[in-house]
From TrEMBL, chain A:
InterPro entries: Metal_resp_DNA-bind_regulator, Tscrpt_reg_PadR_N, WH-like_DNA-bd_sf, WH_DNA-bd_sf. Residues 26-86 form the Transcription regulator PadR N-terminal domain. It comes from the Bacteria. Gene3D superfamilies: Winged helix-like DNA-binding domain superfamily/Winged helix DNA-binding domain. This is PadR family transcriptional regulator. It comes from Plantactinospora endophytica. Pfam families: PadR (PF03551).
UniProtKB/TrEMBL annotation, chain B:
This is DUF1700 domain-containing protein. InterPro entries: Perm_prefix_1. Signal peptide: none annotated. It comes from the Bacteria. The keyword Isomerase does not apply. The chain crosses the membrane at residues 94-113, 125-147, 182-204, 224-242, 249-271, 291-311. Keywords: Membrane, Transmembrane, Transmembrane helix.
């Protein structure tokens, strides 16, 4: 069995960046911070609140997400949605992911 | 909603997070953060948790507010990041290795010229070395920490840390040069030892009976210290040969360096305790009492420089292996 701490470091390294792609894909439908956190966790993307909330703002600043305040309900919430540029980036990231995936598979299946 | 006591905890958390953020971002982040915390607490309340416990658990999960603020501000949670670290340590090393010795020797010489005592000169030199080193370390670190936080650096096409080129690799000192050094070291040792050992006979000054008066104190011969000194010098030459012909290893490096330090250390001891010069010679030559002090100070400075050189060389060799 590999060392737990070592393994978690490697997993963290491997997953870094995958949350960005997950957010860009999942925010086709507008969503707000806490609900998005829950949704991501349900879909198998382990992410902490203190990583996600700043990340959403960073992606908005980069123009990959847009946001709107929804004040219809008693608690005002900031809804994020993937922008046109965000979709382009998501496509490119996804392609890269697929390429990597194929490359890994080839490596693993090699005799 | 929650009770007064528990909402205070959220208030304190939000305030602690916002404190370190730029004012123009605060309102928006506060609104969103409060909503997110409230959503998370509600979720826990729905599954039957106690309000106080729910709030504590949510805030604990969010973690250190300073860390969260660093995330919001897109501020690196480190002083100098990996992109700059190598340049930082390289510059720091270069500055420490050049400026500190230069400033120390400069101040020591100045003090000597001003006629300070040997201990005074040494004390000032040591103080200068420490002050200069601390200043260099502080200002270099500050400069790199600022560069780390300049936003343009993160964009492509912005400023990049110095490009590395294979031509910058240190060249190994050639064996022939080291051999020439060895030969001159041997010649210097033979000449130097002969002069010391023959100095009682070769002196230009004579006493009333016409016998030569040695430059060096007879105390050195009476106690045998002069032979120890020559032996130490010869031993350090022996280690130079060992370094040339044997493979370097840690034990050899350490012993060699200690032997190299012994001769200058002895020189400092002799010069500061006034056991170097023969008082009879000073009198016969008609020197003023200032002159022996000057010579003593000069020898101490020379010895300190030799020690610094030996340590620097040893450190360089240890790093190269």
């Amino acid at each position: 069995m590999p060392d737990d701490e070592l393994l978690s470091t490697h997993l963290q390294e491997l997953r870094r960046g995958s949350v960005v792609l997950a957010c860009l894909l999942i925010l086709k439908k507008p969503n707000y911070g806490y609900a998005l956190l829950e949704l991501l966790q349900r879909r198998g993307f382990a992410v902490d609140a203190n990583t996600l909330y700043p990340l959403l703002r960073r992606l908005e600043k980069q123009g990959l997400l847009t946001s709107d305040w929804n004040t219809d309900e008693s608690r005002p919430r900031k809804f994020y949605r993937t922008s046109a540029e965000g979709f382009e980036v998501a496509d490119l990231l996804h392609q890269d992911w697929e390429t990597l995936n194929a490359a890994f598979r080839t490596l693993r299946d090699e005799p | 909603m929650t009770t007064t006591a528990t909402s205070t905890l959220t208030d304190r958390y939000v305030a602690a997070t916002l404190r370190r953020l730029p004012a123009r971002q605060r309102t928006d982040i506060e609104r969103e953060l409060r909503a997110s915390i409230a959503d998370a607490i509600d979720e826990r309340l729905e599954s039957g948790a106690d309000p106080t416990e729910a709030e504590t658990a949510v805030l604990t999960e969010l973690g250190d507010p300073d860390r969260l603020a660093a995330g919001y501000a897109d501020r690196p949670p480190y002083l100098i990041g990996p992109a700059l670290f190598v340049d930082y340590t390289r510059l720091l090393r270069t500055l420490l290795a050049t400026v500190v010795p230069a400033a120390t020797v400069g101040v020591a010489l100045l003090r000597t010229v001003q006629g300070d005592t040997v201990t005074g000169v040494l004390g000032t030199a040591l103080g200068t070395a420490i002050t200069v080193a601390v200043h260099i370390a502080f200002w270099t670190t500050l400069a790199f920490a600022i560069v780390e936080r300049v936003p343009s650096r993160r964009h492509p096409g912005g400023w990049r840390p110095g490009r590395w080129d294979p031509a910058a690799l240190p060249e190994p000192p050639s064996r022939r040069i080291r051999y020439a050094e060895l030969v001159s070291e041997t010649a210097a040792l033979v000449l130097f030892s002969s002069l010391i050992l023959l100095s009682p006979v070769l002196s230009i000054e004579r006493d009333a009976d016409g016998r030569p008066v040695g430059v060096l104190s007879p105390w050195l011969w009476d106690t045998g210290v002069v032979y120890v000194f020559v032996a130490v010098a010869a031993l350090s030459l022996g280690f130079s040969y060992a370094k040339y012909y044997l493979r370097w290893n840690l034990a050899l490096g350490i012993i060699g360096t200690l032997v190299n330090l012994a001769a200058p250390a002895m020189l400092i001891w002799l010069a500061t305790t006034d056991r170097m010069l023969n008082p009879a010679f000073v009198e016969a030559a008609g020197w003023s009492p200032e002159v022996p002090r000057w010579i003593g100070t000069g020898l101490v400075v020379l010895a300190v420089l030799t020690i610094l050189h030996s340590i620097g060389e040893a450190a360089g060799q240890a790093r190269r292996r």
